[in-house]
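Why should sequence recovery work at all? Because a backbone constrains its sequence more than one might expect. Tight turns favour small or flexible residues, buried strands favour hydrophobic ones, and helices have their own preferences. The token representation captures these environments compactly. In the example below, the structure is given first.
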């Protein structure tokens, strides 16, 4: 084990973040380039683009849940999470390389069904990402102690991953989406493989300690026997977020006139770069200290409410590229919280020996909303006269999410407040 891992130094947190960064970068490439590629290069309509995106959630349902369960209970190639990170990184890189070749692959296979080929490649790409995503997040919980160090691990994850996410969108804005795809393939491979030779995983994952068991009993007495409030709140967040990711191109084509295919891709890339800049700048220096002061759940709820306001602002005032960029910065506050705090909140509530399983279940609150967006919202948006309905959906979903997060109790605050009467008896 590296001395940096023993001491939990900042360089180790950065190294620990790289596998998740690899998958995040691959996902950023998919978000920035897939809808643009399908609509401009292969001329698929809005509903067909939605069908292609639906392949991802289907992969996530099986990929993250099954891999999470398996990775809790196996050990090979010197690790529990390591094998799946290595395999997923390699496959993700190969599938990214396949994206610009959808047409060539269709011609080579001779099936004359571009939509089917696009769905198959999107499915394989998302399955590859999902094979690794769960382990890249679970390994952070495996090698960090509960409490502030765990929160630091996930905020570092978002800081590093978010920084490279910004880089992804800037590459797309400056050099185009094809350059972005090839860069993503290289980074997905390198960041998945290299760090795993320097991170030591614990051979045994200890079940909840007696102290944690006592805390859970306190929680259960007050009726909080499941994670359902957290799952539901997070699901509504992703209803809004995924609607933006998949259909942003349609909103911009309608709202901002005179954009050719390349200019549209550039505006999308810059908008998502702004989103991710705020997303990686805020977690470690702002959200983590604020969470320490007022609690993680309150910090997250406030961030989600601000995100809802940002979406409403895009609907009302997003009539130019610069207005979109400014309002995406507001939305980025909620995005910064969404990709960092829920993992720390959730992993404090579970048996550490089953982190992979619970991370997979938690992922259902992401992929099921994605499936709804791709299969149902796509039809609604395609049939709507105005594509402004996209951000009405986004704002409404995030508003509901913020309300639902009010029902989630911060673990640390709950245990302290719940134990006061018992302490006062001594």
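From this structural description, the recovered sequence reads:
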């Amino acid at each position: 084990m590296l001395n940096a891992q023993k001491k939990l130094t900042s360089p180790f947190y950065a190294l620990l973040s790289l596998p998740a960064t690899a998958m995040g970068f691959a996902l950023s490439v998919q978000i920035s380039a897939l809808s643009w590629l399908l609509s401009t290069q292969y001329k698929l309509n809005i509903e067909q683009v939605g069908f292609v995106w639906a392949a991802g959630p289907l992969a996530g349902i099986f990929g993250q849940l099954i891999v999470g369960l398996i990775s809790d209970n196996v050990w090979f190639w010197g690790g529990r999470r390591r094998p799946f990170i290595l395999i997923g990184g390699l496959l993700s890189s190969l599938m990214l390389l396949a994206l610009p070749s959808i047409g060539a692959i269709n011609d080579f296979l001779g099936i004359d069904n571009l939509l089917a080929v696009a769905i198959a490649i999107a499915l394989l790409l998302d399955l590859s990402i999902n094979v690794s995503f769960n382990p890249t997040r679970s390994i952070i919980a495996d090698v960090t102690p509960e409490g502030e160090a765990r929160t630091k691990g996930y905020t570092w994850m978002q800081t590093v991953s978010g920084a490279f996410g910004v880089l992804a969108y800037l590459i797309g804005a400056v050099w185009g989406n094809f350059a972005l795809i090839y860069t993503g393939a290289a980074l997905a491979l390198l960041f998945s493989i290299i760090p795993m030779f320097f991170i030591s995983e614990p051979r045994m994952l200890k079940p909840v300690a007696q102290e944690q068991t006592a805390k859970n009993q306190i929680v259960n007495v007050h009726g909080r026997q499941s994670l359902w409030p957290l799952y539901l709140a997070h699901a509504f967040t992703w209803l809004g977020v995924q609607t933006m990711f998949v259909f942003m191109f349609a909103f911009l084509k309608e709202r901002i006139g005179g954009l050719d295919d390349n200019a549209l891709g550039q505006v999308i890339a810059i908008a998502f770069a702004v989103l991710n800049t705020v997303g990686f700048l805020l977690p470690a220096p702002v959200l983590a200290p604020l969470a320490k002061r007022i609690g993680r759940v309150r910090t997250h709820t406030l961030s989600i409410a601000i995100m809802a306001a940002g979406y409403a602002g895009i609907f009302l005032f997003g009539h130019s590229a610069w207005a979109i960029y400014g309002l995406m910065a507001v939305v980025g506050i909620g995005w910064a919280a969404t990709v960092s705090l829920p993992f720390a909140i959730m992993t404090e509530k579970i048996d550490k020996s089953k982190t992979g399983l619970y991370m997979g279940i938690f992922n259902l609150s992401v992929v099921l909303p994605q499936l709804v967006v791709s299969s149902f919202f796509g039809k609604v948006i395609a049939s709507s006269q105005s594509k402004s309905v996209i951000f009405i959906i986004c704002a409404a979903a995030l508003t509901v999410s913020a309300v639902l997060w009010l029902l989630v109790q911060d673990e640390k605050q709950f245990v302290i407040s719940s134990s006061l009467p018992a302490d006062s008896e001594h």
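A few observations help interpret the result. The first helix runs from residue 3 to 7.
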